[in-house]
Amino acid sequence: MELIKNYLIASRCHANLGVLNYFSIGIAASYIENGGIFNYKICFFTLLVCIFINNIGFLMNSYLDYIFNVDSNSTIDKTLFGITSIKSLLNYILFSISMVFLIVFLIIPNQFPDLNNQVYKMIIIYSMTTLIMALIYNFFKYIALGSFAVSFVYFLNYMIAFNVNSNCSTLFQNNFFNPVNLYAIYIIMAGFQINHGNNHRDYDEDKKAGILTLSIIFGKKLSLLIFNSISIMVCLWSLFLVNYLKNFYFLSVLFIIPKITKLWISTNDGNTKLLNAKASDIHLTACPFIVFSILMSS
Predict the structure, then answer these.
(1) Beta bridge pairs of residue 143
(2) Closest to 231 in 3D by CA, of 248, 249, 255
(3) Which of 114, 161, 191, 241 could form a disulfide with 151 if both were Cys (CB 3.0 to 4.6 A apart)?
C-alpha cells in the first residue's frame, strides 16, 4: 500500500482530475454529435492510457529536474525529497510506460476485435504522440514551449475521447466552427493557463536554472496579465457559444466568475502562490457545467 501511495504522490494523481474532465467533454461532444452513443468499455481503457501518460509526464519532469539540479530540498517542487528515491522514480516511469503499451497493444485489440482498423490506428498514433510529448516535455519548457505542449496533450486527450466514442479517426472537423472544434478551444485555453500559472509560480527558480518560459520572456507583470486574461477569455468563449450555438445552458459556465474575481484580486495584491492549482480549481469547476451544457444541446 505504501508503494501505491508513493506512486500516486510522485505522479501527482490529483492532476488526473483534469484529464478526466477534458476526456468527459470529448465523450459528451461525441454523445450528442453521434446520436446518444456511449461506448463505455473502450472509453474506459483509453482513459486509463491518458491517465498513465499524464503520470509519465509528471514523473519524467521530476526526474529530469532532479538530474539537472532544478529541484532541491529547498525548492517548491520537492517530489523526490521525503517521498521516493531516484530508483523508485525510474521504476514508476517504467511501470507507467509498460501499462500504456499493455493497454494499447494487448488489451484493446483483444477486448475489441471488431474495432474499426482506422480507429485503432488513431488510438496508437494519439497514444504514442502523447507519450512522446510526456517524455520530452521537460525540454519544451526550456524553450518557452511548455504551455503549448501541455495544451496540445490536453487537446489530444479530448480528441481521443471523441473519436473512440464516435468510432471515427478525424483529428479536426472540416468546418472550424463545428461545435467539436469550438469545445476544443476551451481545452487548449485551460491547459495553457494551468501550465502558465505553474511557470509564473516558478519564475525565480526557473530563471536561476536557465529555463526560458513564457513568464520569463514577458516578465512578471505581463505574465500575470496573460494568466488572468485567459479566465476572461473562457467567459467570453461561453458567451460566444450561447449566441452561436443558441445554447443558453453555456451561461452556467459563468458560475466561475466569483473564483476568477477572487483570483484576480489576490494576484493583484501580490499573492501568486499556487497559481497552477488555483487555475486548475477554476477549470475543475467549469468542466461539469460545460459537459452539462453540451449534453443539454439539441
Answers:
(1) 212
(2) 255
(3) 191
List CB contacts of 179: < 8 A, sequence separation 6 or more: 29, 32, 33, 245, 294, 297
Cβ contacts of residue 242 below 8 Å, gap of 6+? Answer: 248, 250, 251
* Cα 27 to chain centroid, rounded: 15
Q: Which amino acid is at 225?
A: L
- Say which DSSP state 114 is in: T
pLDDT digits (tens, 9 = 90+) for 186-216: 999 999 999 999 888 888 888 887 888 889 9
Residue 56 to residue 60: CA distance in whole angstroms: 6
- Distance, in Å, from the CA atom of 68 to the CA atom of 209, rounded to the nearest integer, reads 8
User: For 59, what's the count of Cα atoms within 13 Å in the CB-facing half-sphere?
Assistant: 29
> Are the beta carbons of 169 and 122 closer than 8 angstroms?
yes
Q: What is the pTM of this model?
A: 0.89
| Residue whose C-alpha is closest to residue 158's, from 31, 276, 50, 45 | 50
Q: How big is the CA angle at 61 (ends 55 and 67), to the nearest 5 degrees?
A: 135
